[in-house]
Amino acid sequence: MLQLRVRHAATPARVARAATLFSDALKALGASDEVGTTLIVANKDLVATLRTRSKSGASAVGTIIQIVQNPITMPSQPGRAEVAAALARYAHDEGRYHPQLWLPRHAKPLCNLDETFASLMEALANAPEVGSHKARGTTYVYSKILRVGRIDERHEYRVRVVVDGRPRDLSIGGLAVAPFFDAAKRDVLVRLKLQAEWTQSPGQSPCLLDASILGIEEATPGSGARILALAKEYNVITADALPEVLAAIDRQRSGE
Fold this sequence. Notes:
- Helix content is 36%, strand content 30%.
- The protein has seven helices and eleven strands.
- A five-stranded antiparallel beta sheet has the order 2-3-1-4-5. A three-stranded antiparallel beta sheet has the order 6-10-11.
- The longest helix has 17 residues, at 12-28.
């Protein structure tokens, strides 16, 4: 867990800025849509507690803590610069209210989000990450539609699907929402075309930063006859043909 504490009233605007800080930081680490990661806000003086019940969410929160504690010595990794930029923006905007980051049940704050902290985070955000790079393109994933919804009529629909092994809420842009509702109702597997952005550092797996859905189609399993036809078309060795292939290899070796 990680807490943001401000000794001022938890007004809607102040709560929204705190939520934006955590949302931007988690998004940079690929965990903004993590199921089980919640922000609990106490009224009167603002105390916003970021809680997570998943392994990937806890890893993202741990990375934020490492960036705050060891901004100079922490090794380069995907999302570090974006997290630092989010922290710098918040410290610049809210520094006059003396916000602090805390680890719950600790006697002292983790750090003060003042102008000195903001300048340090800005420098970290602008420092080049040696060997890291971003990539953008289209990809396909197979998933069931876990949820379809929107905050209200002013917001676009988002659908919850599984990407890279965990649930994510993705925008469908201008696509019709009916096929997503239908797939969710029937609990079927669908093939989704995504526009995605990844970042990668040396020695680490690519980290998905952002994605949106470009298309959907039902992933209907092929019939046995269709699979056999494709195997013949592409010269795939089937179980029935394997003994003959092995016998031919033996004959070739005997001839040598």
